[in-house]
Every structure is written in C-alpha cells, then in structure tokens.
Amino acid sequence: MKTLALKSSLFSLIFFTFFSICFAQEKSPAHLGIFYPISTHGTEAANYTNNFSLHVLTGLSGGENGAAIYGLAGMVKGDVNGAQISGLWNHVTGKVVGAQIAGLLNQTSEASEAAQLAGLSNINLGNSAFQASGIFNKAVLVNGGQFAGISNIADQIDGIQASGIASLSKSVTGMQVSGIASISPKIDGAQIAGIATISKTVKGVQIAGISNVAEHVDGVQISGLVNQAKTVKGMQVGLINIADSSDVTIGLINIVKNGDHRLGVSIDENFNSFLTLRSGGKRVYGILGLGTNLEVKDLKYGFEAGLGLNLAESRHFRLDVEGVSKYLTDFEGSDFSKFSFQLLPTLKISQGIHLFAGPSLSYMHSSDIEAVDHTGLTIWDETWRENYQAVLLGFTGGINVKF
Fold first, then answer.
1. Residue 43: its pLDDT value, please?
2. Is the pTM higher than 0.85?
3. 14 pLDDT higher than 80
4. DSSP strands (E only) in 36-165
C-alpha cells in the first residue's frame, strides 16, 4: 500500500509540473505581427507576456509590460503595464496600469491606475482612475475623472463626473456636471446640470438651469426656475421654491409647508394698487403681484416683484423691509416703472389679518410725463425727451391675510 501511495504521489507531482510548464506564461522582449496568428508568436501568442508589441492590423497576447500598438485592434488575455494603443478597439481581460487609448472602444476589468481614452466609449468592469470618451463611459468606482460627450455611468465617483447630456452615479464625492441631467442619490460636493439635477441627499450645492430635486439638502439649491426638497438646512434660490421646511428661500413664489404665506392688497403714493402674494420662510420671503393705477387710465396693467426680510416679530407686531419693483403699462406705448425700498410696520389685528403702512424711498421712470402724478416728496427729478425720472419719498399701506 505504501509503495502504491508513493508511486501515485510521484506521478501526480510529475503530471502537474509538466502541465504548469506547458501552460506557464513566457516572457518575450518583442512581439511583431500583421494579424493573429500571423506574428512572431503565431498561435502561441496568448502564452507570451511582451515588453513591446507592434501589429499592423490586430494582435493577441497574454500580457504586456511596455507599449502595445495595433493598427486596428488589440486583445490581451492578462494584464497591461504600460500603454495599449489601437486605431479601433482595445480589450484587456485583466488589469491596466498606465494608459489605454483607442479610436473607438476600450474594455478592461480593472483600470484603477490607468487613463482610458477613446473616441466613442470606455467600458470598465472594475475601478478606473480616468476615463474620457466622445460618447459613453462606464465604471464601478472612478477615483479621478470621468468625461464623456454624451453620458457617464458609475457606482461611485470620487472626483469629477462630466458629460454633455447625462451623468449618473450612485454616490458622488466631488462634482457631477452635465449639459442636461445629473442624477445621483448621494452628493457630497456639487451637482450641476443645464436642465435638471436629481438626488436624495445633498451636502453641498445643487445648480440647474431649470430644476433641482432632492429630499434632504444641507447647503444650497440654485435654479433658473424650480427648487424642490423636503428639508433644506441652508438656502433655496429660484423663481419657485418648494419645501416642507427651509431655512432661507429667495424666490418670487415660495411654497414652504412651515413657512410664511400672505395675500394682501396695497396702495402707494402714486395710486398704484396691487394684489400681492408674499411667501417664504420665517425670515426671507418673495413678493409677486398684479395690479393697476387707480388714477391714470393709460396704466391699466401692473406687475410687481421683489424680496422681503422680516426684521422683528412678536405676537401683535412685525417689522419688514422690502425691495420691490413695479411696472405698469397699457401695452401701447405708455409705461411707468418704480423700484422702492419700503419699511413696513405691521399691526396684527388677529392671527390671520395684518394691517401695514410705512415709508418708502423710490426711483421712478415714465415715458409719458403727463401720465405721472406723484404725491410723494420729490428729492430729485429730471425730464429728457418726454421721459421723466425722479427719486422720491413716499408711502405704502394695505392689508394682508395670512394663510
């Protein structure tokens, strides 16, 4: 039995040694060829790791430690330590350390210490340090930069993700930028898009040309039109801001669940009367109104917009300061504009009804001097080619209903 066991062990050792020798990777200083298998390594090309490879059309190897250059395409069934360059396509089953450059497509399993550059697309099944392509990039973890003409996709970004149309990632630490949409559930840094940004948790800033959407924001949302979030510990800046709770909202319409909402009627020293919505957070609110001039028939249509700041508030009193722009016209040549700073002491008759009246400092301009009948105290005025402008002290008064 002992003799049989000894013979079996010896046979196994000889067999596996022979097997390993037959299939071990051979090292070669150079590999030259036209296309596989027309090369210096022939059909055994996959068993060689080369220090230099040059192929007119296509090439195959088991590894590269240096430069590998192909006219059309190159495939490496192993790792690349150096540079892989082809006119169309590069494919590596192992890891790339260095650079992978192709006219169309790069593929690899891992490139955490490499730069991938492609005319169309880079596809990485593992991690990547840098990807740049004309159309599309994909990786698991990008620790550096991911740039594409159309779209980027990654599980995690630690650096920057930028694309012409859409950037998508599960988590971003750094910056996510796109021409149309940036999407990531978690942002720690900046999320920027030409049209829309979408996230669940933002620690930093969201900036979009049209819309920002998030659940929780610890920082700032800035958009050209709409900001939407559940909770904002920071600031929302946009024409329309929507939130359950927000520290500061700067916009014309602010729909804050626990905020300030008032609808009121006012009149000033020029007999401009407006129906105005004041909406915002506890301190800053937006102003948006429609109105008319009660005295001048040519100023039929009025528009009002501005921002207000609550300076002080008690159970029966509040004090606000506002910057308001008013514009009135008949759309037929007559127009009147005025920008005012107004201080508004407010008496709370009840919890929902507030009376306010206070002084204002205004700059006004009108294209028709005959249409102007200001009753304020004029500090300075000037008439030039029937255009009248003045700086004056006036007043604003009215009533607000809180809802």
1. 95
2. no
3. no
4. 38-39, 48-55, 58-61, 63-70, 73-76, 80-86, 89-102, 105-118, 121-124, 128-133, 136-148, 151-163
